[in-house]
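Researcher: Before we compare anything, I want clean individual predictions. No alignment, no superposition, just each chain on its own. First chain goes here; please echo the sequence and then give the structure tokens.
Model: Echoing the first chain and its structure:
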Amino acid sequence: MSTATASVSNITDFHSRQRLFPIRAKVVSIQNRRGLSLMDDESERVDVEMRREDNVLTFREISELRDKLAQEKLYLEEELRSELNFDQIVGDSAALKHVLEMVETVAPSDSTVLLLGETGTGKELIARAIHDHSRRKDRTFVKLNCAAIPTGLFESELFGHEKGAFTGAISQKMGRLELADQGTLFLDEVGDVPLEIQPKLLRALQEREFERLGSTRTKKVNVQMIAATNRDLEGMISAREFRSDLYYRLNVFPIRIPPLHERQEDIPLLVRYFAQKFARQMEKRIETIPTATMHALAQCDWPGNVRELANFIERAVILTRGTSLDVPLAELHRVCSDEFMQPAGPRRFKEITQIVKETMHALNVRTSAVDEHAERQRHAIVRTLTETRGRVGGDNGAAARLGLNRTTLLSRMKKFGLHPKQFC
């Protein structure tokens, strides 16, 4: 019995050890896994810290890029809404071809371009043509009308501002210059840039860097600058209204855009273009334009240039009921007459002065065969037309000043070979 009991005890101990061995192995395994888990946790913690440091270093840059993309998206959406029907440049005159040749010449470069021309000549279209033919054509074209921005807000609009930079600056704002980075910035009416802002604009052009209003951090930009004006910048420099150094920096590649009266052969093409454009918009069908109407339109000087012509044709399309363009001839005659009554601009001042001098000289050397009374009449008419700058009718016109009926004065002017256009 003792031997059997011992044998049973040994067997029991053996089975007990067999049961305990997996338990110990499991404990060791759990401890090993726990150690490995701790090592994995430590490694993961280090990775998280490293990523956190990287995020801290790049957060500002990512945030600024996100803000820029968001603002650029909003700007482009506004541009698409306003420029969806982008007008092409229409014309076949030598003057316009010369302008387009200059556009093709300067477009591949990043040089600053200065567009000079009267209001309504299409300076923005030429600026867009330069952008569309440049290496930056796939980037943003940003425009800023300098005459439309109040002086107190101009710096913020161009360079941007930080939150709290001034009263009402409740958030950070990106300026047009920064929006145009890698693209093109078009400054329309650059002659209206406030004098106190001009040094900062000059620095942005020269150094390609600036600071937002209320910030000390310098930002770098890479933009092509295109400026436009209808003002005499050289005269403004003499009057100390425009900085000469900024003018020289802008005047790298000047392009003069001719007024419509210098390319009258383009008027028929423009008339047909605008007639069809507005007819499509109004869902009308215009097939013909009377020859007499086209001739009358081509004879006007259009002091408002292409913009004035486009507005007039739009009005004509509204009034048209058939398939032939119905131009209000009475309105057209008034438009053509009004241009004679406009104050003399810089472009005509020299011509008017020369006409007056030649007229006065002709009066002085006229032979005695000319009736003395007629001579005095002509002299009085010339003097009065000069004073009224070609204005015949109206309360302050030449006819009222001479005490004559308008038709009587026009008859005498025809007799003496005088025309209001000579004096406007």
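Researcher: Okay. Second chain, same rules.
Model: Second chain and its structure:
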Amino acid sequence: MLKMLLAGVACAAIVSPALAQDVTLKVGDKAPMLESVEWIKGEEVTSFEEGEIYILDFWATWCGPCVASIPHINELQQKYKESKVNVIGVAVWGSQGNEEFVEKRGDGMDYRVAVDIDDKTADAYMKASGQGGIPTVMLVDREGEIAWIGHPMMGLDTAVELMVKDEFTQERMEEEMARIQKEEEARQAKIQPVMMRVQTALQGEDWAEAEKALTELVALEKSFLNGAAPYLYVAKAKLGKTDEARKYAADLMSSVFKDDAQALNGMCWTIVGPDSPLTDEEMDTQLAVTIGEKAAELTDNDDADVLDTLARAYYVDQQLEMAVKTQKKAVELSGGNTEFQGRLDEYEEAAGSS
């Protein structure tokens, strides 16, 4: 969870070890056809149709910054779906569990998705253009040419808006990127000192400073809430503010997190997970169960990770039969995840000796 919080500071990219030496695909070149891919969502694209705009998002399930950018990519698709803009997510570099990943997100990933075959598409696009990190987006214009290459959170909105309005030129985009870079530098100047305080406070278990710094961080930028909220709850609990901590969690459940299963799951796991900083006395197990059950409800009791967390909440709340039952389903849905199985063995042993 701390890693997720830190990931929001900058538009980070995960780097592949296979960075190209020779650039053979540049802005202005014709975009290669998407031939060596398996389409797992949406209609197959066999050619880039004239008059259409395509956003190619190169990503992987194991890439945190890629996953974090998916909601933004999805928003762009919904905003411009009537303007001949087509998003295509292309899973590359050994991305695993793609179909399950995409299916779970449903309308939260409401665009075409394809999976690279034998790295051929990654070679044709990423390696050929000298791109060594994901997420990377490539914007294909109405003539089927690569118009822009960049990070989905740094300039894509502007590039698409200009292209939809037929106002896109390389000169204009360079000006816009200079402006965006300047704004990002100013953002980082504000956020980095606060984030360093958060990191230092959490590592040093200075809960008063952690509460203060996390509150300031969320006030600076609401996008940090999902990552900060679990630690804000923990800080309050560690400081003995039991009622305030419980109210904070309840307010999130009924407002910004009410439809966000992943945020609720993160909150629950931070409370009851094996590495939770909370002692048994500080751990509000009933609250954790309530949060976990809500997350499971939102995912139709069909998400292995969410059920694994809920089972842990049942276990620490001494609802051992429910812990075993729920963990069995988590193991089944995960295809026999060994870590999940280990926890199931732990819960079954506890249930058998109770």
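Researcher: What stands out in the second chain?
Model: The CA atoms of residues 202 and 337 lie 30 Å apart. Additionally, Residues 6-12 have pLDDT under 50 and may be disordered.
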